[in-house]
Amino acid sequence: MTEQIYSVDSYAREMTAEVVATDVDDGRVLLDRTVFYPGGGGQPVDVGELAIGDDRLQVVRVKQDSDGVWHWLEGGLPKVGTKVIGRIDWDRRYRLMRTHTSMHALCGVIWERFRSPVTGGNMEPGHGRLDFEIPNWDASHRDPVEQALNEAIARHLPVEVSFMDREEADLEPSLIRTKVNLIPPSVRRIRVIDIVGLDRQADGGTHVNTTEEVGRVRITKVQSKGRGFRRIRVALDDPAADRGAR
Ligand SMILES: [Zn+2]
Q1: How far is the CA of 80 from the centre of ligand 1 (A)?
Q2: How many helices, marked H, and strands, marked E, lie in the chain?
C-alpha cells in the first residue's frame, strides 16, 4: 500500500519514491509513497511530474485503489525498482487547499445559522460549490452568510488533522452529521479535519494550516435545487481564482 504523504503533511510538494508496479496497457505506475492526492471528497486529483535523472514524465492523472496510488504518465513508463522524484503542481494544489478549507468554513457557518448539513459538493482550484438542505433560505441571507464566512476565516482558526477508529467515529454525532456513515465500512481508520470551533468532518482531502491562508472569499451564486435544497457557489477573492468561477 502506498504511503500517503499528503494525508499527514498537506504542504509536502515533492517526494522521492520507488516504482513498485507498472501497468503498461494503461500507462500507469504504482509508487511506494506519494504526495499526489488521488482525488475524493470533491477535491480533484493532483497533477505534476516524475523526475528520473534528467527525464521528466508528466503525471496527468492519479487514482487510488486497493493496491495503492496509481500515477498515469505521459512520456514513458519507468521499470519496477526505478527511483523517482515526484513533484506536484503546487500553485494548483495550494489553491485547492485554500478552496477546500473555505468549503469547510461555509459548512460551519451554514450549520451555525440553519443547522443544515451539507449534502454534496465539488471544487476546482479557486472556486467550488456545496449543496445544503435549507428550507427557510431566501435571498436576504446571502450577504450576511458571506460576511459571517469572511469573519470566521479572518479569525485565524487552526485546521487540525487527526485520526480515530471507526467505532469511535460512528458514535460521534457531529461526524455522523457530515456523513461518516457514507464511508465504506471497510475503512477502519477515519481521518478527521477540525477547524477548531467552526467545523469538524471526516475527510481525506488537503487543507491549509490556518483559516487566514484562505484569504477573502465571495459567494458568487446561490441556486435553488428544488424542495428546499440550495447550491452555494464560493470563490477565492483573488484575481487568478476568477477564471471559470461563473
Ligand atoms: Zn476537507
Answers
A1: 33
A2: 5, 15
Ligand 1 centroid vs 12 CA: distance in angstroms? 17
Q: 8-24 b/e with 16+ CB inside 10 Å = b?
A: eebeebebebebbebee
Residue 210 Cα to ligand 1 midpoint, Å, equals 13
pLDDT tens figures, 26-38 = 999 999 999 999 9
Say how many Å lie between the CA of residue 84 and the centre of ligand 1: 29
> What's the CA-to-centroid distance between 101 and ligand 1, angstroms?
6
- For the cut 50, the answer to whether the pLDDT of residue 246 exceeds it is no
Distance 10 CA to ligand 1 centre (A): 11
What gap in Å lies between CA 126 and CA 115, rounded to an integer?
A: 26
Q: State which of 27, 55, 88 marks the end of a domain.
A: 88
Same domain, 194 and 84: no
Q: What does the alpha-carbon distance between residue 9 and residue 222 come to, in Å, rounded to a whole number?
A: 33
Full residue range of the structural domain in which residue 19 is found = 3-88
Phi (first) and psi of residue 184, to 5 degrees: -55, 140
Domain match, 129 and 235 both: yes
Q: Please give the model's pTM, rounded to 2 decimal places.
A: 0.92
Name every residue whose Cβ is closer than 8 Å to that of residue 23 and which is 6 or more positions away in sequence.
29, 30, 70
- What are the two backbone dihedrals, phi and then psi, of residue 125, each rounded to the nearest 5 degrees? -60, 115
